[in-house]
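Rotation project, supervised by the postdoc (A.L.). Task for the rotation student: set up a whole-complex structure prediction and record inputs and outputs verbatim in this book. Inputs entered:
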Amino acid sequence: MTDSRWITAAPWLWAIGLFVLWEGSVQVLDIPVIILPAPSDIWVATVKYWSPIWKNSVQTLYTTVVGFIMAVVGGMALGLAIGWSRSIYAGLYPIMIGFNSIPKVAVVPILVIWFGIGTIPAVLTAFLIAFFPIVVNVATGLATIEPEMEDVLRALGAKKHDIMLKVGIPRAMPYLFGSMKVAITLAFVGSVISESIAANSGLGYMMQLAQSQFNVPLVWAGLVALAVLGIIMYALMAWLEMRMTGWAHRGNRS
Amino acid sequence: MTGFVDLRDVRLTYGGAADGTLALDGLTMSVQKGEFAAVVGPSGCGKSTLMKLATGLIAPQNGTIEVAGHEVDGPVSVAGMAFQNPSMLPWRSSLANVMLPLEIVQPHRSKFRSEKQAYTAKAEALLELVGLKGFGDKYPWQLSGGMQQRANLCRALIHDPALLMLDEPFGALDAFTREELWQVMRDLHAEKGFTTILVTHDLREAVFLADKVFVMSARPGTIIREREVPFERPRPIELTYESAFNDIVHELRDLIADARAAA
Ligand SMILES: Nc1ncnc2c1ncn2[C@@H]1O[C@H](COP(=O)(O)OP(=O)(O)O)[C@@H](O)[C@H]1O
Ligand SMILES: [Mg+2]
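Outputs recorded:
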């Protein structure tokens, strides 16, 4: 195999190696299923409970994606406002830092009081947790316009909105798409937290229920399902990033 | 004194009159229409500040600035600017980068869509003039530093400015490329006849290109000498090896050394 084919194969080889090591350790050390099920146990549970796993995965994916889209739209809007005006930046930044420091798990009960248990708190928790990196990145992209570029355009009579439209916003795009990769994985964290506390569907709920029934292989099957969803969405974001802002990754082009 | 660019008794302080940095004080200079002026001086003496004042990007605390017969009270838009950093936008092709000012400055702005073809042809002609024929569809990161700086000059000139402001535009280039760019600049000026103010720390560059060299003192900057450069145009690059040329370079060099020592 050539070098590049090794690199393409590497993630699969590493994953397989990890699972083999895991399986072997569990067998050799005779670890009880309740402590750590072997991959084969998880596989059996996955096949047996395929229908609930599938249904709850769809629910979790749904709440995550809706929360994520809200975070992207809201984060872009606020990021633009912050990057646009120094006074909005100065006023909002400390508040946002404070807000971001609040553990989102503490917000879920409040959301439940407002909206009841179920889909809405999960969507909103995903939104809240994914929002911050997008705001910060969009604002950074706007705030780091080269001063020379700004001078060249301002000397021509360009107004703030011209500079934003021609330079700031295109410049912020790689930052936005980069932050979307972080934000999508955070959104999963948010919706699963909320589902574990206050929902009757979703992977978080399913794992919580399985745990209370001491069905440890199903708990682990839920974790694997989450990991798979996370990888798929991350890959989708990475692909989107490449498509939309290829110019910022010029090393990978011709 | 009625030149194309006139600064009279200009003072500029950054960051508050009392405890700020006094960058320029009592600066007076005048550049005639079509003239090529160079400004040299010790580092940090306020050369870039002078550029920003003359283009209306910042306003002086004292004195008056006139460009093209009007007092400057905001961005002048008759000026094109180029800096040491070519600051090309990486998501635009070179051609689109060169055409950017047309999307901003009137009257081109409102005609930009309807006359896009004519503007494209104009930009291509300008690229050809600086030796970038056929590179219009390349992206900036596909061009060398020297080529980017050529494109940068095109961007500064695309809207036919009456005044070209250059702030150490060739400072980051290697010696050979720099001399090439001097000749490009010389030919552009000869062909288009715009008034030019070139800030540079390269005295040979100043003497080769300029009709008149202004020497600045250390901060707070002011003009301590105005030196005419008498060589006739067009000037061949070999001029830079002649003793008359080097005499002027040395004369300027001594002035700046004195200015630095005085600081
Ligand atoms: N935006 C600014 N705020 C405060 N001080 C500045 C600013 N720009 C320049 N200065 C100061 O003004 C002086 C002149 O700067 P500048 O015009 O950039 O010098 P030059 O281009 O000749 O090297 C320097 O001491 C510099 O530190
Ligand atoms: Mg400077």
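Student's summary: The pocket of adenosine-5'-diphosphate (ligand 1) is lined by residues B 14-15, 21, 23, 43-49, 219 (CB under 6 Å).
Supervisor addendum: Chain B touches chain A through 28 residues (CB under 8 Å).
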